[in-house]
Amino acid sequence: MLEGTVGLTVNQLAITYWAAGGESNMSGKASANFKYTYNRSLFNYVTTGLFMYGAQSFPKSKRFEKTEDRLELAMTMTHNNKKNLTFTALTMLKTQFTNGYRYPNDSIPISKFFAPAYLTISIGYTYNIHDIVSIFMSPAAGKLTFVNDQILADKGSFGVEAGYWNIVEGDSTWIPGKRFLAELGFNILIKYKQEFKNNVSIFSNLNLYNNYMDVNRSNRWNIDVDWETGIKFTVSKSISTIINVHLIYDDNVKFTVDNQQKPILQFKESLGITFLYKFAVDNKDKKISN
């Protein structure tokens, strides 16, 4: 079974001689997600994908700023024992499409495609509650961070080892930063999704990861948090209003705060009217809904 949605969110603001101030702008976001389910007698396989890109432009000042950029793929293998508690293997890949900037500076990238990219491979058990809540726990989860850009790697971005000058007997040699970071820890993934009769649906995904093999023992109890919650109000078959809140805390991602580089809670909230197209195809390539 293949199913998914394609969406487009648009917003426009025009201002001329407005006493309160402001600047005309246009913004939009395109999104697509899919879910492919393949059931066998022993295991069920689910592959999902999320692709999202958003931007806003300011015609007067000729500025263009990115507001959303996500490329996420996941594959889940679950033991088909028809019980609430099931053995699960999970693989997730997260990265972005284009360069990221710390606006208004749009000349120095702070992130790029596969810089970073996060690959998580987990083995554990999933507990399902009435097909509304699922709790996945893995005591052995590997997390691989890729920084496929040498300039960012030399800075030690996203937790990789930074480059440095190796001085031996007065001679100095530049040691490039590493582009790869391997971690081993536990992973907890909690998913909640429910639809209500008044055309309202809610989803919430909480992902927790802890690297208990960190060489720095003081960091072994730092927990990475990725929590996203959305509320969708269905207006019609193709139009919905969506409120989305996304929180991220990663000890390896540093920001300049009070002239110091340190991790901080990242927050993003969005509200918009989205035009959606839904599709579903069975295993015989027969369209069953749209």
Note down, in words, how this protein is organized.
- The protein has 290 residues and is mostly beta strands.
- The chain has one helix and 17 strands.
- The chain has one helix spanning 150-154; strands spanning 2-13, 25-39, 43-58, 63-79, 85-95, 117-129, 133-146, 164-168, 171-175, 180-195, 200-211, 223-234, 239-249, 255-257, 260-262, 266-281, 287-289.
- The strands form three sheets. A twelve-stranded antiparallel beta barrel has the order 1-2-3-4-5-6-7-10-11-12-13-16. Strands 8-9 form a two-stranded antiparallel sheet. Strands 14-15 form a two-stranded antiparallel ribbon.
- Strand 8 (164-168) and strand 9 (171-175) form a beta hairpin.
- The longest helix is centred in the middle third of the chain and has 5 residues, at 150-154.
- The protein is flat.
- The model has no long low-confidence stretch (mean pLDDT 92).
Q: How would you sum up the major sheet?
A: 12 strands, antiparallel, barrel
Give a count of the beta strands, DSSP E runs of length 2 or more.
17
Structural class: mainly beta
Which consecutive residue ranges, at least 5 long each, have pLDDT under 50?
none
Order of helices and strands: EEEEEEEHEEEEEEEEEE
Question: Strand share of the residues?
Answer: over 45%
The DSSP helix count reads: 1
**Gross geometry:** flat
Strand order of the largest sheet: 1-2-3-4-5-6-7-10-11-12-13-16
Supply Rg. Answer: 22 Å
Q: Which percent range fits the helix content? A: under 10%
End-to-end span in angstroms?
14 Å
